[in-house]
C-alpha cells in the first residue's frame, strides 16, 4: 500500500512573515537548526526562503540583511503537496522541479508540514547514506 505524505512529512513548519528581514529569518533558521523557512502573508504560503537563497540572492548581491525583506529574495509560488497525496507523487514533483522540499497544504490552504528529500530518503531507502544523514541528530 502506498504511503501518504502526512505519514512522512515534518509537521509544524517554521514560517516567517513576508516582511521579515533576512537577518531575522537567518536567526530563525539557525535557532531551529533548519535550512529553510516558509514565507507567509496573513497565514497563507507565499514562498520559501532557503539558506542558499540567502547566499546567492542576498549576500552575493550585497543586499543589506537588516533592511531586505524575505519577500524580496524568496522563491515565490512554491510547488506544494496535500497531506493525502501519495509519496510517489511527492517524489515525482521533486524530481520534475529539481526541489529538495515541498510545503504541505490542506485543500483550504492551511500549512501543515514540509516533506523534504531527507524525509523521502528515510521512507524510500532507509539504508541509504542520505537516509542516515537525514536521520542523524544535529551535531553528530
Topology:
Blueprint lengths: L4 H4 L1 E2 L3 E3 L4 H11 L3 E6 L2 E7 H8 L11 H4 L1 E2 L10 H11 L3 E5 L5 E6 H8 L4 H7 L5
Parallel strand pairs: 2-3
Antiparallel strand pairs: 1-7, 3-4, 4-5, 6-7
Helix pairs in contact: 6-7
Features of the shown structure:
single chain, 140 residues, alpha+beta, 4-stranded mixed beta sheet, 7 helices, 7 strands, globular
The sequence of SSEs as H and E is HEEHEEHHEHEEHH
Rg for CA atoms: 15 Å
By DSSP (H or I, 4+ residues per run), the number of helices equals 7
User: Which band does the percent of strand residues land in?
Assistant: 15-25%
**Low-pLDDT stretches:** none
Description:
- Helix 6 packs across helix 7.
- This protein is globular.
- Helix 2 links the parallel strand 2 and strand 3.
- Strands 2-3-4-5 form a 4-stranded mixed sheet. A 3-stranded antiparallel sheet has the order 1-7-6.
- Helix content is 38%, strand content 22%.
